[in-house]
From TrEMBL, chain B:
Name of the protein described by the UniProt record: Cytochrome c oxidase subunit 2
Gene designation: COXII
Cofactor info, note text: Binds a copper A center.
Any one cellular-component term (Gene Ontology): mitochondrial inner membrane
Cofactor field: Cu cation
Function according to Swiss-Prot or TrEMBL: Component of the cytochrome c oxidase, the last enzyme in the mitochondrial electron transport chain which drives oxidative phosphorylation. The respiratory chain contains 3 multisubunit complexes succinate dehydrogenase (complex II, CII), ubiquinol-cytochrome c oxidoreductase (cytochrome b-c1 complex, complex III, CIII) and cytochrome c oxidase (complex IV, CIV), that cooperate to transfer electrons derived from NADH and succinate to molecular oxygen, creating an electrochemical gradient over the inner membrane that drives transmembrane transport and the ATP synthase.
Localisation per UniProt entry: Mitochondrion inner membrane
Domain Cytochrome oxidase subunit II copper A binding: 92-225
UniProt GO MF annotations: copper ion binding; cytochrome-c oxidase activity; oxidoreductase activity
Top-level division of the source organism's lineage: Eukaryota
Protein's UniProt keywords contain Cell wall biogenesis/degradation: no
Domain Cytochrome oxidase subunit II transmembrane region profile: 1-91
Family: Belongs to the cytochrome c oxidase subunit 2 family.
The species this protein was found in: Xiphias gladius
UniProt keyword annotations, A-Z: Copper, Electron transport, Magnesium, Membrane, Metal-binding, Mitochondrion, Mitochondrion inner membrane, Respiratory chain, Translocase, Transmembrane, Transmembrane helix, Transport
Length: 76, 230
């Protein structure tokens, strides 16, 4: 009854063949996740904000709220 | 201005600051990519049961870990240089303002208009009215027209200061004996805050910058009033 011959060589290469693709995949996945959960939503948020932005309306709202010192609310 | 428990940048109010925000997202994405890879490799190394004592070199991995960082650096440098050159684009400012740093206040001179200049001191905490922001409010704000290119010439009268407004992506050192120039456009009306960004003595933290962006006709009314009052 003889024991099966143990693996004698190539263990590092085998480990690298297993782990490196996972490392690259995880890293790439993290980057893609960041891109689609942070980068793209932020770009879209700014584009949407300025698409509908009415600076006169916003200015008047801020003016009436008394935010500005150079321009007082229209009642004053 | 900043809000409580804020992690990222303030909302951009100028096109340049928007570009900087997107570039930061791009660079941070690359940081996460590298960090995830390094963390995984560290865990894999620490949990390894065997060590190969006979590995002396490996041409393949040397090539990989030279080329890959070079490519990553190029991917960071290209958008970065794009923004750098964007900052230096020739634009035609509608207005030039001088901002001078003193210990411990800013003074603004609108020399396009005869004799319009004023000092801007921080409002002390005990003099704030409800709704005003501690350590950020100033008695006289720098008022500018919205959606117009503005040139600001920055210098100092005594020691180093720095004129900074995060929402506009502006930070320029105020150096005595030197004139530094920056140009920006404010996209939307509002009030934007900044603080002195170069240590300048005891009250360095107490000389804020407040910029008020209003439509052109209101800006011109304001300048007329200020000149009359002077």
């Amino acid at each position: 009854m003889s024991l099966p011959k143990p693996v004698m060589r190539g263990m590092l290469a085998k480990r690298l063949r297993f782990h490196l693709p996972i490392a690259f995949a995880l890293a790439f996945g993290a980057a893609v996740m960041f891109k689609y959960t942070v980068t793209e939503p932020r770009k879209r948020a700014y584009a949407e904000f300025y698409k509908q932005y009415d600076s006169v309306k916003e200015f008047n709202a801020m003016r009436e709220a008394g935010i500005f010192e150079s321009v007082r609310p229209s009642g004053e | 201005m900043a809000h409580p428990s804020q992690l990222g940048f303030q909302d951009a109010a100028s096109p340049l600051m928007e570009e900087l925000l997107h570039f930061h997202d791009h660079a941070l994405m690359i940081v996460f990519l590298i960090s995830t890879m390094v963390l995984y490799i560290i865990v894999a190394m620490v949990t390894a049961k065997f060590t190969d004592k006979l590995v002396l070199d490996s041409q393949e991995i040397e090539i990989i870990w030279t080329l890959l960082p070079a490519i990553i650096l190029i991917l960071i440098a290209l958008p970065s240089l794009r923004i750098l050159y964007l900052m230096d684009e020739i634009n035609d400012p509608h207005l030039t303002i001088k901002a001078l740093g003193h210990q411990w206040y800013w003074s603004y001179e609108y020399t396009d208009y005869e004799d319009l200049g004023f000092d801007s001191y921080m409002i002390p905490t005990q003099d704030l009215t409800p709704g005003q922001f501690r350590l950020l409010e100033a008695d006289h704000r720098m008022v500018i027209p919205v959606e117009s290119p503005i040139r600001v010439l920055i210098s100092a009268e005594d020691v180093l200061h720095s004129w900074a407004i995060p929402a506009l992506g502006v930070k320029v050192d105020a150096v005595p004996g030197r004139l530094n120039q920056t140009t920006f456009i404010v996209n939307r009306p509002g009030v934007f805050y900044g603080q002195c960004s170069e240590i300048c003595g005891a009250n360095h933290s107490f000389m804020p910058i407040v910029v008020e962006a209003v439509p052109l006709e209101h800006f011109e009314n304001w300048t007329s009033l200020m000149i009359e009052d002077a």
